[in-house]
Amino acid sequence: MRAVLFDMDGTLVDTEPLWWRATEAVAESLGYDLTEADVPAVLGRSAADTAGYLYAVTGGRSTAPGIAADLLAGFHERVARGPEPLPGALELLHALTAAGVPLGLVSASSREIVDLVLPYLGPHRFAVTVADGETPRTKPHPDPYLAAAAALGVDPRSCVAVEDSPTGLASAEAAGCSVLVVPSTVPVLPAHRRRPGPADRGGSGPAPLPGGGLSPRPARHHDEGAGRAPRPARRRTVSPARPVPAGWPRPCR
């Protein structure tokens, strides 16, 4: 293992309930009530993908770009109040950093959202971060994970990705990464190169959809090391103008 590449939403921080509620509010404004059947099309998806889905199921009552803008505005408002790191997330990041393992953050959220969340995780821990719009294609395509591995100077086939959704898992696997799957509202089937995480995050995993919503987790104290370090790692972001180079290692089958 040369590096560990983490998804953000639902893997390190409890933002998926916030995304669900933002999507729920926009859907209601369009006359559509989200149900559990909509979860795979909403959670773990980019704003553009979710907007396209809502545009289709509401019969084009708005425009896809307009829906995406409303989704991002609602999500930003909720995230700005302070996302909660998931139980064990800060401890794992601290242990890997202390062991000298290079870390990357690979998200389908916008750069604005990623930068809002990073202070709660400790930005010094990630040598590279990749956000939506910074690669030619986002998850479920392999581009974000390929870009993160290239920025770290490692072969993606020597990386472990940590993901919680089928969309992110497909992206990591297509890049050639081995994947550690953590519990999620959206089920992930076992397969080659996938390893299940703990069956339960201390009883704090996402709740089912009671009446169309995800239950928030209880508040936690943040790791006192989050957001500061005496010797911060070099942080790199992936330029939107930089395409994924041809000839990068393809998946192991």
From TrEMBL:
Short name of any one Pfam family annotated for the protein: Hydrolase
Cell inner membrane in keyword set: no
Sequence segments annotated as region (Disordered): 189-253
CDD domains: HAD_BPGM-like
MF term (GO), any: metal ion binding
Bias kind Pro residues: ranges: 242-253
Entry annotated with the keyword Magnesium: yes
Keyword annotations: Carbohydrate metabolism, Magnesium, Metal-binding
Cofactor dependence: Mg(2+)
Biased composition (Gly residues): 200-214
Family, similarity comment: Belongs to the HAD-like hydrolase superfamily. CbbY/CbbZ/Gph/YieH family.
PANTHER family recorded: 6-PHOSPHOGLUCONATE PHOSPHATASE (PTHR46193), HEXITOL PHOSPHATASE B (PTHR46193:SF18)
Stated name of the protein: HAD family phosphatase
Organism: Streptomyces sp. NBC_00049
